[in-house]
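User: structure tokens for this one?
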Amino acid sequence: MIALVFAPLSAAHQIILPILWFLQVSRLSDIATKEKTNRIHYFTYAAYQPVRRLLVSQITAGIILAVALSFPLIIRYLIGGSFIHVLEIVTGAVFIVAFAVCLGIMSGGNKLFEILFFLLTYSAVNRIPFVDYFGGTHNDLNYTGLMLIIIIFLLTMSFALRNYEIRHAV
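Assistant:
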């Protein structure tokens, strides 16, 4: 996080930020899979409104973690008046969490997310434009809108799959 303060803006945004988020891969990959890994999913699924309360709180905690890690860069962009970059960083943070939750629920484990997130981060650091999930190379609202559509799809799939798991006690 200290490097986000002192590095040039382009290097901080395009290289340091995705690497910093990638270093949290073990935390992010466990967001929706802890229950099954620790074999307490029957208890958590029997709780009062597990999707509304538990899953939403897990997603919110992941988003707070990702945004908090990028906070020095967000402050630098806010001081510079570049609000589109701030929106792209927050969108990237939400995308990471939605991607982790969706893949975790779909696969039932954390390895699929870890592998795909590694490939995604490696491609983003090497500036491949179509995998830019955090606005490192794209600076327009059209791409951010596309990312928001992808996020909505991932979260919708996550909630639908978790509801299916709870109803069928898989």
